[in-house]
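Async update (no meeting this week)

Hi team, since we skipped the sync, here's where things stand on the single-chain job. The sequence we agreed to prioritize is pasted below, unchanged from the tracker. I ran it this morning and attached the output directly underneath so nobody has to dig for it. Comments welcome in thread, and please keep replies under the output.
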Amino acid sequence: MSSANDLDALTAAPHHHRLAFESDSVRVLETKVAPGDTVPLHTHAWGGVLYVLSWSDFVRRDESGSVLLDSKAAGLALRPGDAVPSAPLGLHTLENVGDRPLHIIAFETKDQ
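Output:
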């Protein structure tokens, strides 16, 4: 059985997440997902703020493959420079179904 740490984004999906900064209170992750690529099953234990560097449509699925969020169907379209709040995320995959890279900086706050 996997531990929670094994499913953390940095451990479970290191080809898509890079640690940019970490302290006792905040973690900054850079996430890049190429068009057509799917990020393996992982979690984000802390919520925070997502800053968009480049946007593409995506589908987020839970561990059984059920769709949690389809950005296009939901009408979610962000632009470079946009920032949005993000709650902690349980087990999920993320597939870039668009034609551009999805490139996000996540500022996760640990004191939640």
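Quick observations from my side:
The two ends are 26 Å apart (CA to CA).
The domain at 5-109 is CATH 2.60.120.10 (Jelly Rolls).
Reply here if anything looks off.
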